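Q: I have 63 residues here and want to know how they pack in 3D. Can you give me a structure?
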Amino acid sequence: MWQTVITFLVVGIALFFIGRKLYRQLRRAADPSQSVSCGCSGGCSACNVSCDDKNTNQNEPKK
């Protein structure tokens, strides 16, 4: 009995987090201004300035 309850609880929690992640991804896809990651590597002409700054800072050699 308790094993079944715990199993359903664990599966329910996992489904909750998976569903939340999928919901957030779909919401970001629908509204690009909410996107956290940048797609500059794909050659997109609409990259934002912060994305360009990130890429130039990563490519600079450390002193």
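Q: Anything worth noting?
A: The CA atoms of residues 52 and 61 lie 16 Å apart. The two ends are 62 Å apart (CA to CA).
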